[in-house]
Amino acid sequence: MTTIKFGTDGWRARVAEDYTFDNVRRAAQGFAEYLKQHDLADKGCVIGHDRRYVAEDFAAAAAEVLAGNDIRVWLTPGPCPTPIVSYSVVEREAGGAINITASHNPPTDNGFKVRDPFGGAIAPEGLREIEALIPASADMVRRVPIERAESKGLVQRWDPDPAYLSHLGQLVDLPKLRNAGLTILAEPMWGNAGGWYPRLLGGGRNTVAEIHAARNPLFPEMLRPEPIPPNIDVALAETVRRQADVLLINDGDADRMGIGDEHGRFIDQLRVFALLAYYFLEVRGERGPIVKTLSTTQMLNRLGELYGVPIHETGVGFKYIAPKFLETDALIGGEESGGYAFRGNVPERDGLLGNLYFIDLMLETGQTPAQLVETLFEKLGQAYYYDRIDTRFPAEKRPETRARLDAAQPATIAGLPVTRIVTVDGYKFELGDHGWLLIRFSGTEPVLRVYCEVTSERLVPQVLEGGLEIAGLKE
Questions:
Q1: pTM exceeding 0.70
Q2: Which stretches within 14-69 are classed as H helix?
Q3: What is the CATH number of the domain that holds 420?
């Protein structure tokens, strides 16, 4: 049988190859055993899913296994944004959650995410426990057919939306946002955010429109539902055509977000993270720690200095961010992929709430998205530029490349002095005040990522090229 390993955020695999009903049931059995060992089984489990191919059937298969272990299940009645699945764990006082989603992966994939009683990602040691509890064979899985489980009351379908909407209303002034008088375009990328922005921001003085809002697991007009170019190029062009004030973007399961400005230009996810931190620190006057992964922006470090708040840096993934977020009662936490968590909410990414906060930032400052970026750079004293290159990378080549990276000790990259090398998660080459370069293997797919952030736009391609050379991908 397939060895199931949890990466940066859950287990992901190609449907019908490794991602099969038997393997989903095995993973669910491992999680059921984990809940029992941690005295969480009596609290029950929330199970949700995205809009990918037969995702609802995979979710039902997981529910059958939990029911077979005498664990009560709240099963979403249809596709459900990941932030709502996470919040429902807290609202139901459940022991955890299973979410059937591959997030931003290609249409060939699906995934299996697990969450703790706080609605957050389970820490690495917990994931290793779950992996060890996954049975070697599907014959060792206990299950009850879904119809019987529902008739016995072990599986209950319920509407999670009202509780989440009520919760949002405590965090943001929805009537104010609905009457902002903005022209808003939403890009849910054929995913779970479809229909949500007309619901959240419509009904007042706004004009709210969507594209790619239906269910289509092939994700036409994009390579994958990842909220970055070129996947959002159609939406950015549509922003200009419709003369929208802002483009609100979410990935396939709606836990990540992205922003397009009024000129149809993408505001990269590092700048969005810094703008959201600025919103809480400057506009709302709040204070608290900021938790960031090592793959995200130095702008947060500068904001920390300016506003006197501590910055905590972790490995990549919310399995690292969520525990630190809870430990420090953080104001905001996030990562390079466009996922951000907020105080007062669950310690998990919420792309719906993040976009609502961005609209409030626009209203409170009276500025457009493009103007906000300029205001941020004025506050920081300089501009910051970011980019990333992803290279498909077979697993068999990893040892050779890892050895090459272990041995790399460059004195300079693109003419910039390397001041420190950090190997907490991948290989990060700090370039003093000029920025950084990071090389790491993806934890969710067979990809090698090379990222950089520097204070000079012309240096971005040079630093990235230097990273490719260090990794042996460019001679």
A1: yes
A2: 21-37, 55-68
A3: 3.30.310.50
